[in-house]
Design brief:
Number of helices: 14
Helix content: 55-70%
Oligomer: single chain
Number of strands: 8
Number of domains: 3
Strand order of the largest sheet: 1-3-2
Radius of gyration: 24 Å
Strand content: 5-15%
Distance between the termini: 42 Å
Largest sheet: 3 strands, antiparallel
């Protein structure tokens, strides 16, 4: 039997691939056919679609006939759903997220006065040149046109009017006031942190090694070397915590845990990763809201890092797959942007 979560993942993948081909909509009947499921999965498909609709991951275009037994209803995807799906991918596979980040970056630079608008339009060619120069992003004319209206609905104030296809210009209502709304600023801030991982690591050699390790994750992902990716994520997190403690000017150098009478030297090379993680959670070093992620690291990623030792891997008979690594990567990314 195919699990519901597996069907959901396949649905999202089909919709995403459909969107990349510049098609926002798909009939449920066509979706069911592409899933190659037997008729007994019809009700389960509708249950999953119901869930995705409630979670605002899908839109339904023909609500009057929803749950039509012949699946004639049409589903639609927009920027919100697109970003939700790409967030499950590693940064180097987020095509539309990069495109949106680049455009919001330019809008933010206009808001901050670095670039000044003298007219209510920006030629697309100028937008493209700025993003290539400032962020090394190659922006596709057709893809941008396909998502341009969604930007104004989600990330921009009503100052931004959208992309005018006939004149190939971005148009604004006036020359005053912010372009980005609070949601746009928050999204941009997070994406720029993702693009600039490890910039706060002061040791140049350590920073370079971290970037090499992260690039290795990119290459290993393409080769589907899931175990090796798990090991590298654990190693990177251990280094970041240790570096953070060392830069804390004594604030995070010692700890008397609940079950110890003598202080533990958190900076000692003999202090285990598990102890450092326990300290992070008990002291809520990165806030209560991140403790569940650190607990996941303690229970899973910390252990997987030790599978560099083959005897441990063979003894515990752990196998890794893409689904498992995607879940792990979501936690990994949320944590490394904290440093």
């Amino acid at each position: 039997m195919i699990e519901l979560l597996e069907i959901e993942e396949k649905i999202l993948e089909i919709l995403y691939n459909n969107f990349v081909k510049w098609n926002r909509e798909i009939k449920i009947k066509e979706l069911f056919k592409n899933l190659s499921l037997g008729n007994e999965y019809g009700k389960k498909l509708l249950q999953i679609i119901d869930k995705l609709l409630k979670d605002n991951i899908l839109e339904l275009r023909s609500r009057d006939f929803y749950h039509d037994p012949e699946f004639k209803d049409t589903l639609s995807w927009g920027i919100e759903e697109l970003l939700y799906y790409e967030k499950k991918k590693p940064p180097f596979q987020r095509e539309y997220t990069d495109l949106i980040t680049g455009v919001l970056y330019l809008f933010n630079e206009i808001d901050n006065g670095r670039y000044i608008l003298y007219e209510n339009e920006i030629p697309f060619a100028q937008l493209s040149n700025i993003l290539k120069k400032d962020m090394d992003i190659n922006i596709d004319h057709n893809r941008f046109y396909f998502i341009s209206s969604d930007l104004s609905n989600k990330f921009c104030t009503n100052r931004y009017m959208g992309f005018m296809a006939k004149t190939e210009q971005l148009r604004f209502r006036n020359l005053n006031g912010p372009i980005l709304n609070s949601q746009g600023i928050k999204f941009l801030d997070y994406q720029l942190k993702v693009k600039n991982f490890f910039q706060n690591v002061l040791d140049p050699f350590g920073r370079e090694i971290l970037r090499e390790e992260f690039e290795d994750i990119h290459e290993l992902w393409g080769k589907k070397k899931w175990k090796d990716i798990a090991i590298k994520m654990g190693s990177i997190l251990e280094y970041l915590i240790t570096d953070f403690f060392e830069r804390s000017e004594g604030k995070h150098s010692e700890w008397i845990s609940k079950d110890k009478t003598k202080p533990i030297n958190l900076l000692s090379k003999n202090t285990k990763f598990s102890i450092k993680l326990s300290y992070v959670m008990q002291k809520e070093v990165f806030g209560t809201e991140n403790n569940s992620d650190w607990k996941y690291v303690y229970n899973h990623i910390r252990e997987y890092r030790n599978y560099v030792h083959l005897t441990k891997l063979v003894k515990e008979k752990i196998t890794f797959n893409e689904k498992m690594i995607r879940q792990m990567y979501e936690v990994f990314e949320r944590l490394i942007v904290l440093f």
